[in-house]
Design goal:
This is Copper resistance protein CopA. The chain has about 600 residues and is mainly beta. The protein is about 10% helix and about 35% strand. The chain starts with 5 loop residues before the first helix and ends with a strand. About 50% of the residues are buried. The structure holds copper (II) ion. Copper (II) ion binds near residues 492, 525, 574, 579 and 584.
């Protein structure tokens, strides 16, 4: 048995930031030659950078542990066909495709085809769709491709998605589509940690702000005192403390442990897409991060959004896009100069990744500094303050008087278009540390950190799916569910019930349903309903956009329509991996 050689264990004392930003393109810099390869590395190193492309109707995918090195420290990744990202799968609408997935891991695995309409047995969620793929087993997925656009796929087992199991899917229309571009690049964003993801979760369980290094400091206090007076500054501190909340709690996991990747490449590795001046380039942004919202811009270039979550939208031109975990956005850009930086900073502003569009390999453009973090506002915490009624119930749970044993039909509309949320009885328990009574319903808010930054930032209010809703029926029924959590315990839930304590939500086959989500927490949750489209409405109940993931901002209420046309058992969850794992997950049964 060979030992891991010293070279790999003890690297020189470089500043920690350099490790975090990533030394190598991944697996390359150390040039692990065969004699240096540790015993576990029976296969060649993981391929990183642009993923290999597989197309056709038959696919063989093998899942294994393979070595990777993003930070100077070798680690084992969970990979598909030995690459990060996993191979890009190109399908054609109307084809029936067969995917043979072989598990060479010592534990169970699965692949979920994110955003794809298919029979539930093919959806790949262990315990709901099927039993998972055991070590040594090959599972055959087979289904007809009904839709077109940009999607992705990932493991739905354990923490495998965090350790490398994600790839892109591009589906061509059966007959050529209306979109013309000279180049077509996937830009897949993700987050990598050298830590065992289970240890990351364990740390958050012990201390939910473990990775938050942006906490208010004494300096902030004196600045507030100078600006607003000592008593106001004191009151502000007292308020946060009483609420047991922290205005800088923008992300659970930060660049303290994460290296952010673009197409499996660190910022130092600088993934590059080439072009010739005058060309139109289609960029397919996919957020495959486990826990990271990215704010993406290309300084010097406007981006015209043409698709969101694979669906054509009326073209809309912006400077910047916040891409929630698991969302996809396709944009067209028309570069003129020699080089542009594709810059993606994390929402909590602790780090970034970047790549370059250039006329020649090796070129770079200026890389902007990461913006300063913006603290959460009272509106983020308390909801709609317009009526001057305050929006949040932060009393200790227990003897609360309001007892709505279930969310009744519809919402109570207050004066001025405000909506009062109805909390389920199960929300008055230890799993919930905050309830918003007067949620905001605005879709034109780009969200924390992007307000008034001088750039035109995309919001859901800007997006309109071409062709309108798939189903013209109005809702026959409404379901209201609340996104809840207890920060101190690091538990996440729907209506105060973690998955293990919950029972399935029932949709009647073929009914048209309005789903209302109210976010009673101060984090944005990217909510993903499997198997069916979520058709987001504006606050007036008019159709806005068809999506597979809907970000619900802190203290916000959103509603969307669903046509329950997919029989079977489906997952419905927050796509932040650790929130899902900590309980923000429900089963939906369509029967
Ligand atoms: Cu969440």
């Amino acid at each position: 048995m060979k030992r891991i050689p010293k070279l790999l264990c003890g690297l020189p004392n470089l500043p920690r930031r350099r490790f975090i930003q990533g030394l190598a393109a991944g697996g390359v810099l150390l040039g692990v030659s065969p004699w240096l390869r540790p015993a576990w590395a029976q296969v060649t190193d993981t391929t990183t950078g642009s993923a290999p492309v597989l197309s056709g109707t038959e696919f063989d995918l093998t899942i294994a542990e393979t070595p990777v090195n993003f930070t100077g420290r070798p680690r084992l990744a969970t990979t598909i066909n030995g690459s990060i990202p996993a191979p890009t799968l190109r399908w054609r609408q109307g084809d029936t495709i067969t995917l043979r997935v072989t598990n060479r891991l010592p534990v169970d695995t699965s692949i979920h085809w994110h955003g794809i309409l298919l029979p539930f047995q093919m959806d790949g969620v262990p315990g709901i769709s099927f039993k998972g793929i055991a070590p040594g087993e090959t599972f055959i997925y087979r289904f007809k491709v009904q839709q077109t656009g940009t999607y992705w796929y990932h493991s739905h087992s354990g923490m495998q998605e965090q350790t490398g199991m994600y790839g892109a899917i591009v589906i061509e229309p059966a007959r050529g589509g209306p979109i013309r571009a000279d180049r077509d690049y996937i830009v897949q964003l993700s987050d990598w940690t050298d830590e065992d993801p289970m240890r990351v979760l364990a740390k958050l369980k012990m201390q939910s702000d473990y990775y938050n290094f942006n906490q208010p400091t004494v300096v902030d206090f004196f600045r507030d005192a100078a600006n607003d007076g000592v008593s106001a500054a004191m009151a502000k501190r007292r308020m946060w403390q009483q609420m047991r909340m922290n205005p800088t709690d923008l992300a659970d996991v930060s660049a303290y442990t994460y290296t952010y990747l673009m197409n499996g490449t660190t910022p130092a590795g600088n993934w590059t897409g080439l072009f010739r001046p005058g060309e139109k380039i289609r960029l397919r942004f996919i957020n495959s991060g486990a826990m990271t919202f990215f704010d993406v811009r290309i300084p010097g270039l406007k981006m015209t959004v043409i698709q969101a979550d694979g669906q054509d939208v009326e073209p809309f031109t912006v400077d910047e896009i916040r891409i929630g975990v698991a969302e996809t956005y396709d944009v067209i850009v028309a570069p003129k100069d020699d080089a542009y930086t594709i810059f993606a900073q994390s929402m909590d502003r602790t780090g970034h990744t970047r790549g370059t569009l250039a006329v020649r390999a090796g070129m770079t453009a200026d890389v902007p500094a990461v913006d300063k973090p913006e603290p959460l506002s009272m509106g983020d915490m308390m909801g709609d303050m317009g009526g001057g009624m305050g929006g949040m119930d932060h009393s200790a749970h227990g003897g609360m008087a309001m007892d709505h044993s279930q969310h009744a039909m519809g919402a109570m509309t207050m004066g001025g278009g405000q909506v009062r949320a109805r909390h389920a009885r199960t929300e008055y328990g230890p799993g919930v540390d905050m309830r918003v009574d007067m949620p905001r319903t605005n879709l034109d808010d780009p969200g924390i950190g992007l307000r008034n930054n001088g750039r035109r930032v995309l919001t859901y209010a800007d997006l309109h799916t071409i062709g309108g809703p798939l189903d013209r029926r109005g809702p026959e029924r409404e379901i209201e569910l609340h996104l809840t959590g207890n920060m101190e315990r690091y538990t996440w839930s729907f209506d105060g019930l973690e998955f293990g304590k919950s029972t399935p939500v029932h949709f009647r086959h073929n009914e048209r349903l309005r789903v209302i989500l109210v976010n009673d927490t101060m984090m944005t949750h990217p909510m993903h309903l499997h198997g069916m489209w979520s058709e987001l409405e504006n606050p007036d109940g008019r159709f806005q956009i068809r999506k597979h993931v809907i970000n619900v901002q802190p203290a916000q209420r959103v509603s969307f329509l669903v046509t329950a046309d997919a029989l079977g058992r489906w997952a419905w969850h927050c796509h932040l991996l650790l929130h899902m794992d900590a309980g923000m997950f429900r089963e939906v049964v369509v029967a």
